[in-house]
Amino acid sequence: MESKAIIKNNKNRNQIRRIIRLKPVLPYVEMHVVDHCNLNCKGCSHFSPIADELFTDINEFTSDLQQLSRLVSNIEVIRLMGGEPLLHPNITDFIHSAKFLFPNSDVHIVSNGVLLPTMTNEFWNTCRQNSICIDLTIYPPFVEKEKTWIEIARSNRVKVRIAEKPNFSAIINSRGDSETKRISEKCIFPGFAMVRQGKLYHCWMPALVHYFNRQYDESIPNKDYLEIYDQKITGWDLLSQIEKGSETCKYCTSGWHNVPFFQWTKSTHNKAEWDVASSFVN
Q1: Cα–Cα 20 to 30 A to 171, which of 213, 220, 226, 262?
Q2: Fold of the domain built from segment(s) 23-273
Q3: Does pTM surpass 0.85?
């Protein structure tokens, strides 16, 4: 009986060791293809109205994904976004790269739809052949275009999902006195990660808030990330980074019940579009 128990315990330990050795799966990763946009939305959560005209380098993008493929077994969902990703003249290269390195991932392109009627046959063929889904965000000025854009995608046999966005909200509390625990518990982006320029962030805010800091002379923390090329880290470290909060959470309004919402309109680059600590100006 004792020997059977020992054998059973050894089997259990071996199973645990195998599980520990396995590379984890990341649930969700966003990567910017561009930072700028062809719209100018007031309070854009990715700060596109005040961002640089930045086109991501395909070699940097591919290198980052290659490194991730060494650390994790899969990424369940990869979203290519911006800004407006269809502004990148080589968008198909990013699709090929993502699907080659993570063939089992669901790859989505997040677009406002404006450029869909201008996209080439190469783009549509690439999307179809790689089972890409286009996530269309429909803003109020383009509601009447929604059916047309859906039909364009479907006629090219490409999947499309629709999210209508009539409202925006202030996303920053520059006072930095948000309750971190409450924010992390009620965060609307659990399991989120953004990978940018060799760094993995648990949230889009620290990855992009440098634009807000530069524009309005603020210093919201943006240094809480993991260097994915650090030889000491593992995929499990990446997963842990995603699951924890950071100093940036103190400046977030994600868990607030009284965040000021406003109807979509064009940005005037007023700080209050993003910051609840500023007196709000319509």
Answers
A1: 226
A2: TIM Barrel (3.20.20)
A3: yes
- Per-position pLDDT tens, the chain of length 282: 444 443 445 555 555 444 445 899 999 999 999 999 999 999 999 999 999 999 999 999 999 999 999 999 999 999 999 999 999 999 999 999 999 999 999 999 999 999 999 999 999 999 999 999 999 999 999 999 999 999 999 999 999 999 999 999 999 999 998 876 555 555 656 678 999 999 999 999 999 999 999 999 999 999 999 999 999 999 999 999 988 878 898 999 876 767 878 999 999 999 999 999 885 444
